[in-house]
Design brief:
alpha/beta, 10 helices, Rossmann fold, two-stranded antiparallel sheet, about 40% helix, 9 strands, globular, seven-stranded mixed sheet
Length: about 325
Amino acid sequence: MIQKKKEHPIEKLKLHPRNRHRKRYDFKILIQSFPELAQFVKLNEYNDESIDFFNPEAVKMLNKALLKHFYGIDNWNIPQNYLCPPIPGRADYIHYIADLLGDSNNGKIPLGNQIKCLDIGVGASCIYPIIGNKEYGWSFTGTDIDPVSLDSASKIIEANTFLKGKIELRLQSHPKDIFYGIIQKDERFDITLCNPPFHSSLKEAQTGTLRKLRNLKQQKITRPTLNFGGQSKELWCEGGEARFINDMIIQSIRFSGSCFWFSTLVSKQSNLKGINKALEKAKVVEAKTISLGQGNKISRIIAWTFLSKEQQKKWINSWKLQE
């Protein structure tokens, strides 16, 4: 039985204005770009074309179609049970940090491979470097503590020739380190970005997954099936998001002159108070909180810099010299 059709907004206004995914998914166009998606597209109870977001394979196929259609990625895959990122939200992070760099540059977003980005926890999907390079031409260094993730990201780069030479991958061999062993002497990055592990334990991760799936299916679920996948290292760490970001802030002090802006996603609003205290303690020169949202989920980016206004000006002048 077809239920009364929901009224859907023409645009997802919570997404960044430059986000390519503000409009609802046009499955006919996506199938033209990626025919393999067709078998997963069905009419839902409102007689709308959709996929079963409860099905990990369907979610992966949607991602393949989005990456092919919007970003020119012909070959993209991730190992089974690895995190399959929600692309609209990942694109939002990239666009908002582009604005952050632009705000430091008299409103002009810097473009091209002279802009160096450090992705902490690049993951098997290599998603931030793909979007950042396609949208703004930036070059990326992606780090991870998981060799399988780096191997997967490397295969994606090799399989899509326009990414070669624009994304470098580095293994972080000490899981408690974030910047140590990664940022080399005299190396400079314009922005760091990170989607930190959200949960503090496997049990908490499974509980969160059950809650998400119940919301999706509107019925009781007792077995946690990760529709977006995710390995333990991707989903949780000791102390969860708050501990990870606190460690990142402390470690960033040593590399205060190596990066213009440090940044990270913060999913839990309750963590903001502790994060802001840590930033004060670290004596950052400037910190910004940037809100972003997708559907009913609201998250934010925290960004900070140790550079004085004079140092920022010199840094920005170096962009112009490289253009």
